[in-house]
Amino acid sequence: MRFAANGPNIPDELLVARDEGRVVFFCGAGVSRAKAHLRDFIGLARSVADKLSISADKPARQLINAIETFPPIASVGSLISADRVFGLIERDFLSRDIYRAIAESLKPEGTPDLTAHRLLLDLARGPDGTTRLITTNFDLLFENCDSTISVSKHPRLPDPLRGQDFTGIIHLHGHVTADYSGAADDELVISSAEFGRAYLSERWAADFIKKVLERYFVVFVGYSADDPPMQYLLEALNRAPGSFSSAFALQSGSYEEAEARWVQKGVRPIVYDDADQHSALWDSLSLWAERARDPVKWHDALLARAKLGPERCEPHVRGQIAHLASTSDGAKRLAQAPDPIPADWLYSFDPFIRFAKPGRTGSLMEMGPYFDPFDAYGLDSDPVPATR
Fold first, then answer.
1. What is the reported pLDDT for 371?
2. CA 169 remoteness from chain centre
3. So where are the chain's domains?
4. So what's the pLDDT on residue 276?
5. So what's the pLDDT on residue 74?
6. Other Cβ atoms within 10 Å of 302 Cβ, number
7. What's the per-residue H, E or C state across 51-92?
8. In the chain, which stretches have pLDDT less than 70?
9. Which residues, at least 6 apart from 292, have a Cβ–Cβ distance to it below 8 Å?
10. Of 137, 177, 219, 249, which has the fewest CB atoms closer than 10 Å, so is most exposed?
11. How many Å apart are CA 244 and CA 219, to the nearest integer?
């Protein structure tokens, strides 16, 4: 189902699972970049190198330049993982100095725009009011949205298999101190060595996510498939076949490229157009959050639009109404509506029926005005006479 005409097509099972409190949003640097304009992973590495006055002839600086010089390869991604930069920096600097430079690089200037973070917290809140959100970001922007939400990190991670314990904002890779002067408990997962311990040798991060996937749907937001957290996470979990059936990733660009980069890693991509600075994504998440905040109001507004009839609704709106009819709660709302929606909707609820254009004979088109129900599902099809 699409919340916006050019937005991502959210699977019905994911929409229902979120309404039931069975979805965990896993948030990366793209969330903090979207509205608050913080740095991505390689931007952070560059800023740290500047603050530590790393000269141009040092391997870390040369690696940063190489990452920026060679663009990602389509369907493959970046050839150089940015975590290696911090591995090189660790050779010459103390961890506390690196963490201080990281914290200073991530400190927001002025009052940051927290719109993206608030949207995701709304989506991460279940029907019982419990918030469950995981992030690999070191900044504290989620906490800035709501200081009453609990926060946890390694080594005191909650047990995902105990719902009453698995709550709040989980900083999987650690976070900075409240004053952005360093790392809380002097620990951040940032270099290749630290990623290796977290996901491959000690495996505490991989085991944690594996448990999450056993019980919840996971939606990765703000990542590309070649981001260091994703590379280590997906490679570590790849040892457990079938672990990814409940994992999704919001990905910009073409479906073919998204499929090539995610599906082989066991994650289902949800693709959107990135032509306008990812606005298609954030507009859709905003509308999804609106539904999450007040489902009754959202459903009532949708039913009001449905009364206009399918031929007067845009394709993505038809998809929303078809989704409503496909769920038990939605079907109940439709059946109990004091003012029933037009009977023409019955045809659009079956995606296997195609209608002929007006004027053709011998088709179900004679029963009502023309529209193509395949549009509602994001499928391309030429209207042809129905055969049954």
1. 40
2. 15
3. 12-38+110-282, 41-106, 295-377
4. 66
5. 60
6. 19
7. HCCCCCCCHHHHHHHHHHHCCCECCCECCCCCHHHHHHHCCC
8. 71-80, 238-245, 275-277, 350-388
9. 18, 19, 122, 123, 125
10. 177
11. 11
